[in-house]
Inverse folding.
């Protein structure tokens, strides 16, 4: 049986969990890591987690590198913290580090997927539902007005009926886009069934996992997800302005086309060079190798990109 957070909070399971919870003294030691929680009762972590001391300390050490340069281990810390964050997040969602990249926010990853699949240009359609994040649904309504075939399934008594999803998915469906745990009411999508539905029609699945990861177990392989993204500022106990992007390795650079071209041009004419290379263009282009060994066709996995905040 699928249970949302609201149902769980009112259940006998919640009562049992509270009975087995650590003693108050244990909570006090945890609370001290969250200064805001020492000043007030805070129950809105699903919207924005108060910044814990250990996150603030990590951010401070990274800023020391920006202020003072790489000496005294600062550069090593900065490089390793970036590398390790991918490794640890990959482990958290059962992915490979090569499948993880950085985005500025959840919707930036979602936009990379939707744009990279070229859904509108190919004459395909996108399926979502009204318990997906409202900012994403708004984006899809805008895309619909611009000509994309967007199909939005409406909830039934605040849950999504798989039969309604099945009715609108067809052979032209390119992507099913969902929120794994809805911010509206805590509804947990049956992502595995949705993935099976999508893959049976040759489509792919994107999941916004911002309300899930760090709160409930997330296994992208078991759920059959092709793409996922999340910001850090909720259950991951980070800050706004950064997040993670998951793209299944075999889809990088093939199924999803990158629409930006990172790197630096080398001008091949005077006065930029003393002698022009006659076998090259004036503006030679070469995609840089991905730092994690992945295809540069999905270069969004090694950069941050701006989009509407979430």
């Amino acid at each position: 049986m699928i249970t949302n957070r609201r149902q769980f909070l009112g259940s006998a399971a919640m009562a049992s969990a509270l009975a087995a919870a650590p003693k108050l003294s244990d909570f006090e030691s945890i609370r001290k890591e969250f200064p805001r929680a020492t000043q007030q009762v805070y129950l809105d972590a699903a919207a924005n987690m108060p910044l814990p001391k250990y996150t603030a300390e990590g951010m401070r050490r990274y800023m020391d590198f920006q202020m003072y340069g790489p000496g005294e281990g600062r550069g090593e810390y900065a490089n390793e913290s970036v590398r390790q964050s991918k490794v640890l997040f990959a482990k958290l969602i059962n992915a490979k580090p090569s499948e993880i990249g950085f985005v500025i926010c959840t919707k930036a990853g979602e936009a990379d997927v939707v744009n990279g699949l070229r859904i509108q240009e190919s004459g395909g359609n996108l399926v979502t539902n009204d318990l997906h994040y409202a900012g994403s649904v708004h984006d899809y309504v805008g895309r619909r007005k611009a000509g994309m075939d967007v199909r939005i399934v409406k909830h039934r008594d605040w849950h999504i009926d798989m039969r309604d999803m099945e009715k609108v998915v067809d052979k032209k469906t390119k992507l099913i886009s969902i929120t794994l745990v809805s911010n509206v009411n805590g509804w947990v999508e049956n992502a595995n069934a949705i993935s099976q539905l999508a893959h049976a029609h040759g489509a792919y699945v994107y999941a916004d996992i911002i309300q899930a990861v760090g709160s409930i177990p997330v296994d992208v392989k078991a759920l059959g997800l092709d793409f996922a993204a999340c910001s850090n500022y909720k259950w991951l106990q980070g800050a706004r302005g950064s997040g993670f992007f998951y793209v299944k390795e075999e889809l990088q650079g093939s199924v999803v086309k990158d629409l930006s071209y990172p790197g630096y041009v080398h001008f091949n004419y005077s006065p930029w060079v003393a002698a022009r290379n006659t076998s090259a263009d004036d503006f030679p282009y070469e995609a840089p190798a991905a730092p994690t060994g992945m295809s540069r066709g999905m270069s969004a996995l090694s950069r941050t990109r701006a989009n509407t905040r979430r």
Remarks:
- Residues 290-309 have pLDDT under 50 and may be disordered.
- The first strand starts at residue 100 and ends at 103.
- The two ends are 30 Å apart (CA to CA).
